[in-house]
Amino acid sequence: MRTVQKKRFLILNIDPFIIMMVLVLATISIVAISSATYTDDPTYVNKQIVWYVVGFLCMSIFLLLDYKILSQGRFLYILFGFSVLLNLLVMVPGLGVEVNGAQLWFRIGGFQFQPSEMMKLILILILAKVLAEKKGHPWSDLSSLGRICLLFGVPFLIILAQPDLGTALILFGILLSMLLVSGLDWKWFVSGLLVIGSIAGSVLLLYVTDSPLLHVILQPHQVKRIQIFIDPASDPSGAGYQSTQAKIAIGSGMLHGKGFHQGTQAQGNWIPEPHNDFIFAVYAEEFGFIGASILICAYLLLIYRMLVVALRSDHLFGTYIVAGVMGMFVFQIYQNIGMTIGLMPITGIPLPLISYGGSSLLTQMLAIGFVVNVGMRTQTDALSF
Known about the structure:
66% helix, 4% strand, transmembrane helix
C-alpha cells in the first residue's frame, strides 16, 4: 500500500507546466520543419515526430529511476571517461563523419550520432555530483577547484579541437550557471567576464589589423565568421549569405507573418539550413512577430518552471542538475536566435526542441526528464504555479 501511495505522490508531483510547454514547443517544431522542408524533403517532419516519440519514451522510462542514485559511487566518472573517449575517437580519420569542415558524428546505419551532445548531460551530472559533495562550497580547497577545472577543461578542449566552437561554448554556459548557483563570488564572475572580454577584444584587434597571428590561433572558417559578424554586407552572396537571408526572412514576416507554407524566403530555398540552424527565420517569416513572441514566451515559461524546481529541490545534487540544464537551454536559445537576427556570430547551434535533429533532440528531452525527475521527487506538495 505504501509503495502505491508513493507512486501516486510521484505522479501527482510531475510539473504539468513543463510537460505542457514541451508539447507546445514540439508542435511549433513540427510546423516549422514542415515549412522549412515543404519544397525539399517532407520526410523530415515524420523523422522529427519519431524522434519526439522516442524522446518522450526515454524521458518516461528515466522518470522511474530516482536521480539521486546517480550521485552515488563512481558510475558518473566511468560514464565521463567513456564520453571523453568517444569524443576523441570521432576525430580519428575513417571513424568520424566530416560535415562542413568539422568531424563531429559517428554514422551508425542510416543514423548519425554526435558524442558531444551526450557530453553536455554527463558534464551537468558530474559537476552536480562534485558541487553537491562540497555542500555548494567548492572554493574551500584547491583540490575540489582543480577537479572542477579538469572535468570541464578536458571535454571543452577536445570539443574545441573537433572543431565545434558552438558546443564548447554551451559547455562553458553550463559551467557558469552551475558555479553561480554554487555561490561563486561576483568578483570572480566579473573577473571572468573581463578576461573573456579581453580575449574577444584581442581577437577583434588581430582581425582589424590583419595580423598573421589570427590565422594561427583560429581556423579559416572561424576567421570568416568574425568578418561576417562585423560586416555581413562584405560578402552577401558568400559567407554573409546565411545572415543576410535570415534577416530578410524575419523582417518580411512583419506582425502576422506570410502564412503557413507561404514564406517566400523559406519556400524559395533562400534560407540555408532552414530545418536546423536557421529554423527561427523560417518560423518568424511565416508567423511573424506574434508567432515569434509565442515561441519566446513558451521558452520563458519553461525556464521559469525549471527555476521553480531548482529552488524547491530538497537535494543539492538535484538543484545543480536543474541549474546546469537551465544554463544549457538559456545559452542555446540566446545564441541561436541571436545569430539569426545578427546579434551573435554564427556558430551552428540548433534551436532547442525546435530544430531538426536526433542526437540534439534526445539530449534536450533527457535533460528535461532530469528536471521533471528532480521536481517529482522533491518532498513537498505538488508544485504550484
